Structure formats: structure tokens, C-alpha cells
């Protein structure tokens, strides 16, 4: 698409290097320049005398640039007109990006192409209008009339968006460590990619991937809108094919695919179809084709050839699909992948506030309700929430709400509006329509099974099915068929689940099918089915199903789901699609089922390598909240969790075991790739506590250091030990000692089931702490006292630590010949109330050394007396430094005597 406003002279100069190397057919260019009077006879002769191609090209470029912008413009026009013979394919896009303005009439293609573009723009506007009308339908006619796009998070980082949420379990053994690029998942729009950016980019193949209802279609429709509304002179074309058309393509001919329906009723254009197709082929860089909602196209030759750029080689191809199709069909398509992540928090707010019938108080209630708010990150759910506004009360908006409940509410709302019924008559009305509704549900189920959204269902706009369906015509000169489809895929899946509730005997078959490659898309029914079986939704559907019916189905249902999606193989470590199951459980809202699940996974949720959006976090948080006596371990290694999602999970932190380890995983991932603002907010969320792994990773420590040292308030540092016990290294110790001024206390954590014995771990930690103090004594003398305080704050026996520190430093002095002890004097001379020593563990001689450092006598509490003569002697030498001595005796049965003897030493 032509977009450059650069002057011709600059445009040529900027591409000089490429042109010198790649210009073809120079004699033709020279001849054309001569015809246009840009070059004269002598110049042409001079050029002809140059044998070497590059030199000749250089000379041409020198002359035309020296001659000024008119010469350059003529030159560019020649390149554009003769592109096939003078430019390699690579430079076709370059030349088409030059804006020739009004002078370019002669190169803007035949009028038939202009007419086609006008038709395409009209069609695009119709498509967008239809979308508005459909939304309007839900809002009872109050919705905005114009197509509206609220910014979506469009993430181009393929590394961190590896497909997940697979039904087929993943093997832990094959997990690879995530790349450095790991960054936060939504709801943060840091990249601010827009559909317009994608459209204007140089990318020729763009794949938008995302889960149901996340906004893929809307994103590509924004491209369509952008193009349709743009007023410029450029002759460019955008073809949009939605799911309906894609599933009904009956041609293998490019012309027929692109033009048949457009020119069907225009005899004049029909005659020029070949001319138009030829132009589109010759100027394929002016063509954009959108295939929205593609799935399984391997047997469709024409799609294959377009997608692989065999036809229209320079066209921009934009495809949208759900994650499972990305896995299967686009695995090796060299493309720019864009992961549609839904709404950011900011966008949710914008979306809700600009909806019709919104009441600011109601909006705030939704924003304050984590379950509802997190649902809204999926635009389809935001849409549902907004559509429900009209009959929500703010009390209702405060309530916990599952996705299924939202769909049921909208289902009831639409039927109520359609029948023009009062709420109290609604149930009876739904009951009257039961047969029609179930017929529709059956049809939805069959279509879902067949992986299509086209239903062959007889209905009229006035009947109840008309509330949920729209008709779709697939017209071509060869055939014309009318189908109908649901207003959205997810509504079809909801209806499919309704049918399963009616026919529970099919459940087993469906669960089996979900595990097959061909039918894995059927898993999307399962969370809805769980929701329909929930105690909270049963009353809303009692008009369709007598309450006993769902209850009967529910019995043993979740066990079957668990069996399907939870694989445990005796030989291998089993892996679970835990997020999916948590979503099902959240829909089911059953404490009992949560406990089964937790039992089955041994109260350990492996969410490693997952991307958890806020809605999924809510589901995980719900499951955690249901664990009663036994805390849950949450593995978030290499996972990406949004801050709001983490906040939701941490609401139930009392139910989490090894929380420090989990937070350490969160911090590790965040430090590797998050921006500073995220880290600062994470620090706030963790209550000014930072959790770091005890591993030597320079970049990680550098980033952590920045956060710690820049924090306005002192930070509590937790050091967490992973699997390798060797890594409490000196280098790490030195790094931490530099942060100590910004740290209020240091804590050490190890996994509960750490193989290393508790005693060994304690020893290593003590040694590490001693080294920290030694570092302070060596390099930060002024801070030595506070350093000792900080490292001994958390459950360290201060007396023993100070005694050990003395011997540690002494040893260091002996080994290095350096004097360190003087720096530590303030520590020993500070106002310690008393010394407590167990002489069976520490030597009396050591106590003597320490007591000697003091300037005043101190009380001593003694235990573990030793009869060894040297010890006794040493201890007696201590007496002059002791103001008061307390001791405990073991009685004859070796029990600690309850009475203690206090010796008051005579002061001399
Ligand atoms: N950016 C947006 N701005 C406003 N509304 C949006 C936006 N994205 C999605 N929506 C709303 O959410 C609905 C569902 O979005 P959309 O159809 O784009 O999802 P999808 O990812 O294509 O789903 P599926 O995979 O099921 O086809 C839209 O009909 C629209 O009402």
C-alpha cells in the first residue's frame, strides 16, 4: 500500500544501495529515461559505454539525483510501471510504498480496479455494520451504532507464547527452560501494538492466535475498518473471509474466490474479471487478504496456495485461529505471530464505561469484583457483563460470577426480551419454548462436533432461535446456500453443553473425543457443562431441566472429567492440564470436587510454564481456597502471571504451602524479563518483601539489586534455596552485602522436602551469615553493627552467633593476616543485656575472649557445664568479667531442674 510522503529524491537516495545492487534491465530504464527527457543523447551514450552493471546503475542514480526531484519522480514512475522487468520481487513492495500523489493517474491501474476497491470498501462497511447490529441485538437496541475497537493486548513475543492449555498432557521431561524474553502476560499493554501497526508493517504473513472470544475477529475487523475508512488515492484492496465463507469454499480458482460474489450482479465488471485479476496478480503487494477463523485447511488447495504465497506472492495474508490450530496447521509457517491476549485492565475499564445503560456505580462494582473483573479480560465476557448491566443490580455485580452464569443470564435476558415477558413469567415462558431451545442445542452440538459454525437449522427471525442466530448466505455464481450461525462461537459451545445436559449418556463419548486430535476442540464445552451442573446455576435453569436431572448427571461427572484430563502413568511423572481443570472446577463451584482434585494431585498444583491470565488465576485461587486442612503447593516455575492475577491467588496464601518458594519462582521470572514498574508493583504486592533464589546469576542479581537499592523503604530479603546446596557462594555473599544498607532483614528458606538435612542447612546458613558480617566488617565498617542486627533478626540465636562470629573472624585473621576484629568491637561493646552460653557446645575459652572485648561486666546465663579441667580453668578466668551468673542444673534423672540457682558474685 502506498503510504510514503517522502520526496522522490530522498526516496531514491534511501534505497540507493539496494538499487545499485538489484536494478535489472538497465538498458530499458535508460531508454525510458531518455523518452521522458530526463537523460539526453550524450548521457545515454556515456552510460552505454560503461560495461559493468553496478557502475552503470551508480551513474544513472548519480545523474537523476543531481537533476532534482522531478527527475527522480520520473525515475520512480518508470520503476513502478516496469516493475516486473526492472525490479526484483523484493523491491516491489518498496516501490508500491511510494506515494505518487495526483500525478500518478497513469499508474493507478484500470478503472475496473477502482470500482472493485469501491465495492470492497462498501462490503467492508456492511460487514462492520452487521457486527454492530449483532451487538445491538443483545443490548436491546441501545448499543453504539459504530464499530468500536477498544485496544487489545497484541503480543508479538512468540517465545513466551508457546501454545499451552493442551488437553493432551504435556511431558514434564520435555520442558525446556523458557527463553530470556519471558515477559509479563496481560493485562499490561506494554508493547501497544495495534491492528493498524500490523497492517502497515512490512510483514507479509500475520497469524493472530488466541482463545475463544479473546478478540481475534475484532482485531482483524479493526484492520478492515481502518482500511475502509481511509481516504487516499492509493489503489489497494482488502479481502475479508470469515469462518462461514472459509468453511464453504468450493472453488480452486483465485479469480472466483476473490471476485465472484463481488461482481456477481455487475455485468460490466464480470466482463473485466480477468483484467482485474491480472492487475491483482501483477500488483499483489497492494492486496491484503484476511482469513478470519481458519481451522484445518490442508485439503483446501486455494487457501494453501494463498497462505504460502504461491498465488499473489507479495500480498499481505492475515489469518486468525484458535491455539489448537496454531499447533497443527501453522507450526512451520514463516510468519509474524501475534498472540491476542484480550483486554488490559485499562481497556476493561474503558469498555465498561462506554457501554450503553452503564451506571458508574455498577461499573465500579464490577471493577471491584475480582471474579467478574478478571472474566472481563476476555472481551466476549466483558461484552456479556455489559449486556447484563441493563438488569444487573450493583448487589448482583458484587456477587461471585462464573462464565457459565453470565451466559445463562444473557440467555434468559434475551428470551425475556424476545417474549416481552415480565421477570416473574419468564420461567414459564422458557418452559413453553423448551422444545425449540433443545432443538437448537442439539443442532449446536452437532455443528460443534463437526467443527463448523454453520448450522442447518430452520428458523424464522421471529421465533426463539432467531434471538441467538443470524443467517449467513454463502453465495457464489455456482451455488447459493443459506446457513445460520450463532452470534458467537462461544454461544454455540454454551448451547452444545446444554444439549449434553439433556443427553448425559453422550458425556462419556464426548470426553473420549476430547482426547483425540480430530475432536479436541470439543473440550470447550466442558467448562460450560461444569457451570450448568453447578448448584448456583441449577435454579436458573430449572425451567428447562428439573433440578434432579443436572444433579443426577453431576453425580460422578467430575470424576470422569478428572479421569479424562488427569493422566497418571505409573512409570512416568504425570502431568496435568491443571489450569483447565481449575477452570472447570471454578465453573462447577463444588468444594467436594475441588478436594477430589487436590487429593488426586497430592495437593500440588503444577502450573509451571503456564501463562495465567487473570480469569485463570481466579479459577486457581478458587481451587486453593477450597483446600481445608492441607495446604496446597503451587509451582509457578517459569510461569507468567499478571499482578492482578497474583493478587487474587495470594488472597488465599494461608492455604499455600512453601509460599516463599512459589514467590521465589514468581520473582525469578519477573526479574528475568519484567520492566521496572512491574517489579516495583510486585514488591508492593509482596509487602516490601523480595524473594530470591540462592543461585549465581549475575543478571538476575543485578536487576534485584536495582530494585532493592532504589526502594524508598527498606526491603525484607528472603533467600530461597533450590535443589543445589552448593550455591551459597562467596560471590553471592559479596553481592548481598552491598545491598544490606537497603535491607531491613534477611531470611532463609528451604523447601520442606529438601533432601539436605536440616542440620546441614542450618550450618550453611550460619556460615553464610557469618560471611555477610565479615564482608561488612571488611568493606562497610560504619554499617557493621546494623548488619549484624539484620542478619540475626530472624530466629538466630544472637549469643551463639556472636561467639561464632568471633571465632570465624579470628580464623580469617589467621589465614589472611588482615586485622578485622577492631571493626567488630562496637558489636561486642554494645549494650548486650546478658550472655547465654551452653558450654557443651561452645568453649569457655571463646566466651573468655569475647568477654574481654567488653568495657563493662555483663550477666551470664550458663548451661551445659563441662568437667574438663581446661574448660573449668577458662571459665574461672571469665568470672572477673561477669556481673551476675545464672545456671541451670540437670537433676539426677537428667531433667532440667525447675529451680535455678543464682550466684551473685561479690564485686571487688
Ligand atoms: N477490541 C475490542 N473492542 C470491543 N469489543 C471487543 C473487542 N474485542 C472483542 N470484543 C467483543 O468480544 C466479542 C468476541 O470477540 P471476537 O469475536 O473478536 O473473538 P474471537 O477471538 O474471534 O473468538 P472465536 O475464537 O470464538 O472466534 C466481540 O463480538 C465483541 O463484542
Automatic annotation (TrEMBL):
SUPFAM superfamilies: DEATH domain, P-loop containing nucleoside triphosphate hydrolases. SMART domains: AAA. Its main location: membrane. This is CARD domain-containing protein. It holds the Pfam family CARD. Residues 161-182 are annotated as: Disordered. It comes from the Eukaryota. GO terms for biological process: innate immune response; regulation of apoptotic process. The lineage of its organism: Eukaryota, Metazoa, Chordata, Craniata, Vertebrata. One of its GO terms (cellular component) is cytoplasm. Residues 4-79 form the CARD domain. Keywords: Cell membrane, Cytoplasm, Immunity, Innate immunity, Leucine-rich repeat, Lipoprotein, Membrane, Palmitate, Repeat. Coiled coil: none annotated. Residues 163-182 have a biased composition (Basic residues).
Amino acid at each position: 500500500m502506498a503510504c510514503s510522503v517522502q520526496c522522490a529524491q530522498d526516496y531514491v537516495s534511501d534505497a540507493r544501495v539496494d538499487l545499485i545492487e538489484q536494478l535489472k534491465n538497465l538498458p530499458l530504464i535508460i531508454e525510458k529515461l531518455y523518452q521522458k527527457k530526463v537523460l539526453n543523447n550524450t548521457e545515454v551514450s556515456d552510460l552505454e559505454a560503461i560495461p559493468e552493471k553496478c557502475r552503470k546503475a551508480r551513474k544513472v542514480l548519480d545523474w537523476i539525483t543531481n537533476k532534482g526531484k522531478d527527475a527522480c519522480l520520473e525515475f520512480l514512475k518508470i520503476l513502478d510501471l516496469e516493475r516486473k522487468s526492472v525490479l526484483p520481487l523484493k523491491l516491489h513492495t518498496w516501490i508500491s510504498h511510494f506515494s505518487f500523489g495526483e500525478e500518478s493517474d497513469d499508474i493507478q491501474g484500470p478503472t475496473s480496479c477502482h470500482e472493485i476497491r469501491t465495492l470492497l470498501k462498501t462490503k467492508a462497511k456492511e460487514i462492520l455494520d452487521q457486527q454492530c447490529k449483532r451487538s445491538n441485538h443483545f443490548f436491546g437496541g441501545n448499543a453504539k451504532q459504530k464499530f468500536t475497537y477498544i485496544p487489545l493486548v497484541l503480543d508479538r513475543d512468540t517465545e513466551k507464547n508457546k501454545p499451552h492449555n493442551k488437553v493432551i498432557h504435556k511431558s514434564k521431561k520435555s520442558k525446556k527452560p523458557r527463553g530470556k524474553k519471558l515477559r509479563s502476560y496481560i493485562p499490561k499493554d506494554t508493547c501497544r501494538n495495534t491492528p493498524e501497526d500490523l497492517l502497515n508493517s512490512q510483514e507479509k504473513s500475520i497469524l493472530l492466535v488466541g482463545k475463544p472470544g479473546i478478540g481475534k475477529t475484532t482485531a482483524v475487523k479493526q484492520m478492515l475498518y481502518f482500511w475502509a475508512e481511509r481516504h487516499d488515492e492509493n489503489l489497494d484492496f482488502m479481502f475479508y473471509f470469515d469462518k462461514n465463507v472459509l468453511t464453504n469454499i468450493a472453488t480452486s480458482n483465485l479469480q472466483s474466490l476473490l471476485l465472484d460474489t463481488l461482481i456477481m450482479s455487475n455485468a460490466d465488471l464480470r466482463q473485466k474479471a480477468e483484467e482485474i485479476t491480472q492487475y491483482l496478480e501483477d500488483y499483489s503487494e497492494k492486496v491484503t487478504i484476511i482469513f478470519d477463523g481458519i481451522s484445518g485447511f490442508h485439503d483446501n488447495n486455494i487457501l494453501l496456495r494463498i497462505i504460502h504465497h504461491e498465488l499473489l506472492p507479495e500480498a499481505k495474508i492475515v489469518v486468525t485461529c484458535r491455539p489448537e490450530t496454531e499447533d497443527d496447521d501453522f507450526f512451520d509457517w514463516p510468519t509474524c505471530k501475534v498472540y491476542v491476549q484480550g483486554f488490559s485492565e485499562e481497556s476493561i475499564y474503558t469498555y465498561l464505561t462506554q457501554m450503553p445503560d452503564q451506571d458508574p456505580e455498577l461499573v465500579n462494582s464490577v471493577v471491584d469484583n475480582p471474579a467478574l473483573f478478571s472474566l472481563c479480560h476476555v472481551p466476549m465476557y466483558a461484552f456479556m457483563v455489559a449486556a447484563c448491566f441493563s438488569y444487573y443490580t450493583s448487589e448482583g455485580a458484587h456477587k461471585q460470577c462464573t462464565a457459565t452464569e453470565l451466559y445463562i443470564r444473557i440467555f434468559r435476558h434475551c428470551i425475556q426480551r424476545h417474549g416481552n415477558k415480565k421477570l416473574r413469567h419468564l420461567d414459564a415462558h422458557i418452559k413453553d419454548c423448551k422444545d425449540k431451545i433443545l432443538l437448537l442445542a442439539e443442532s449446536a452440538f452437532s455443528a460443534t462436533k463437526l467443527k463448523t459454525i454453520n448450522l442447518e437449522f430452520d428458523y424464522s427471525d421471529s421465533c426463539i432461535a432467531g434471538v441467538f442466530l443470524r443467517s449467513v448466505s454463502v453465495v457464489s455464481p455456482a451455488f447459493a446456500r443459506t446457513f445460520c450461525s450463532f452470534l458467537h462461537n462461544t454461544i454455540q459451545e454454551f448451547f452444545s453443553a446444554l444439549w449434553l445436559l439433556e443427553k448425559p449418556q453422550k458425556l462419556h463419548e464426548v470426553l473420549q473425543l476430547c482426547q483425540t486430535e480430530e475432536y479436541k476442540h470439543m473440550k470447550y464445552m466442558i467448562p460450560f457443562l461444569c457451570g450448568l451442573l453447578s448448584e448456583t446455576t441449577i435454579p436458573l435453569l430449572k425451567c428447562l431441566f428439573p433440578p434432579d436431572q443436572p444433579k443426577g448427571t453431576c453425580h460422578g461427572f467430575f470424576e470422569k472429567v478428572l479421569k479424562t484430563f488427569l493422566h497418571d502413568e505409573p512409570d512416568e511423572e504425570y502431568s496435568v492440564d491443571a489450569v483447565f481443570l481449575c477452570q472447570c472446577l471454578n465453573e462447577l463451584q463444588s468444594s467436594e470436587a475441588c478436594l477430589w482434585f487436590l487429593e488426586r494431585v497430592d495437593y500440588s498444583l503444577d502450573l509451571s510454564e503456564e501463562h495465567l491470565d487473570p480469569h485463570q488465576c481466579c479459577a486457581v485461587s478458587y481451587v486453593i481456597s477450597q483446600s481445608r486442612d492441607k495446604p496446597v503447593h503451587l509451582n509457578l516455575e517459569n510461569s507468567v502471571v499478571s499482578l492482578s492475577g497474583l493478587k487474587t491467588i495470594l488472597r488465599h496464601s494461608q492455604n499455600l504451602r512453601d509460599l516463599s518458594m512459589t514467590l521465589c519462582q514468581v520473582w525469578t521470572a519477573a526479574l528475568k524479563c519484567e520492566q521496572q514498574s512491574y517489579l516495583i508493583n510486585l514488591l508492593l504486592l509482596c509487602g516490601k518483601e523480595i524473594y530470591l533464589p540462592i543461585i549465581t546469576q549475575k543478571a538476575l542479581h543485578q536487576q534485584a539489586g536495582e530494585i532493592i537499592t532504589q526502594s524508598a523503604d527498606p526491603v525484607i530479603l528472603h533467600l530461597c534455596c533450590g535443589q543445589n546446596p552448593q550455591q551459597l557462594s562467596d560471590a553471592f555473599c559479596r553481592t548481598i552485602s552491598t545491598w544490606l544498607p537497603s535491607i531491613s532483614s534477611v531470611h532463609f528458606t528451604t523447601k520442606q522436602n529438601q533432601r539436605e538435612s536440616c542440620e546441614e542447612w542450618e550450618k550453611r546458613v550460619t556460615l553464610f551469615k557469618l560471611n555477610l558480617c565479615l564482608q561488612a566488617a571488611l568493606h562497610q565498617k560504619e554499617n557493621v553493627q546494623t548488619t549484624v542486627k539484620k542478619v540475626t533478626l530472624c530466629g538466630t540465636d544472637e549469643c551463639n552467633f556472636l561467639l561464632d562470629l568471633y571465632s570465624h573472624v579470628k580464623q580469617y585473621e589467621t589465614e589472611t593476616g588482615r586485622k578485622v576484629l577492631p571493626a567488630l568491637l562496637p558489636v561486642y561493646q554494645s549494650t548486650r543485656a546478658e550472655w547465654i552460653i551452653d558450654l557443651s557446645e561452645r568453649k569457655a575459652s571463646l566466651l573468655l575472649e569475647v568477654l574481654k572485648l567488653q568495657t563493662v561486666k555483663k550477666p551470664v546465663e550458663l548451661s551445659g557445664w563441662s568437667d574438663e579441667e581446661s574448660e573449668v580453668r577458662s571459665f574461672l578466668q571469665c568470672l572477673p568479667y561477669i556481673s551476675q551468673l545464672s545456671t541451670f542444673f540437670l537433676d539426677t534423672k537428667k531433667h532440667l531442674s525447675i529451680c535455678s540457682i543464682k550466684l551473685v558474685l561479690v564485686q571487688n
